[in-house]
Amino acid sequence: MKLIERYAAGDLRALARLITVVESGLPEAGALLRAARRLGRRSRVVGITGSPGSGKSTLTDALIAQLRAAGQTVAVAAVDPSSPFSGGAILGDRIRMLRHHADTGVFVRSMASRGALGGLSNRTLQVLALLENFGFDYVFIETVGVGQSEVDIARVADHTVLVLTPNQGDAVQAFKAGVMEIADVFVVNKSDLPGASRLVRELRAAQGLAAHTAEDWLAPVVQTTASDGSGVDTLLARLEAHRAHLGEVRLEARRLERTRFEVRLQVHERVLRAAQAAEEDALRRILKGEASPEELADRLLSLEEVQTQPLR
User: Fold this and answer.
1) Which of 77, 97, 161, 285 is the most exposed place for a label (fewest CB within 10 A)?
2) AAA+ ATPase domain location, by residue (predicted)?
3) pLDDT digits (tens, 9 = 90+) for 138-149
């Protein structure tokens, strides 16, 4: 049986192999991705983001346990930061989810961010497509947690959860970074610590400063203690409420935006490759003032030859 046929039939090993093919950028990756997307399966895609140490992985683990108890299947793409020097990553998030390793209803894949400033690389979006079309009920994307640059998850997920913790200045940082706008649900994790109630009040006060209508979604604030599972059922209920609020039309719009973002990442990757391929002589000419960076960029990208054509 072909790899894509085993994948369509629900073979987890075939899924793992396909992800490896995509992450490695092998020549057959494009055709396999197209075949997977033609299956047209849909999952609830939930983004989990927040500052390092906020308990994102522990919260994801608690969500998995709750969903599996309800008979739901779950996949997790856990994105770890890449070293700017070696390009490697620790890929340690799956360590926190080891209790699910023998459960065939749970699939966890750790991935490197590959230096993407927003925490999501082109490969992450391709892996997401494989996970969703495999047919999991829920797909969680747990992002790097790099702070102010990490807003791309809102372009990818159906629902975005922003995880904050008390007494770490997270509320102030959220206001400064502009990540308040990306959250569909706020989670105040480690809510058994002092300062949790104050953080909840600050978040609600900040929401009150923004203009909104009766039809707008006002992101609820949920208190959790992921280590013992407290509040996780409430979080899932709020996610379901947000899905009902969006409806199929707005969910489809979000999926189209995800595809637009994936195309943008492809373009960005190609531009970076072109810049890396610049000849040293051309760079020296720019350094001497004999040419401009704009001229070299135009030549590398052959912009004068680019024409808009329909996809075939």
Assistant:
1) 285
2) 42-257
3) 999 998 764 544
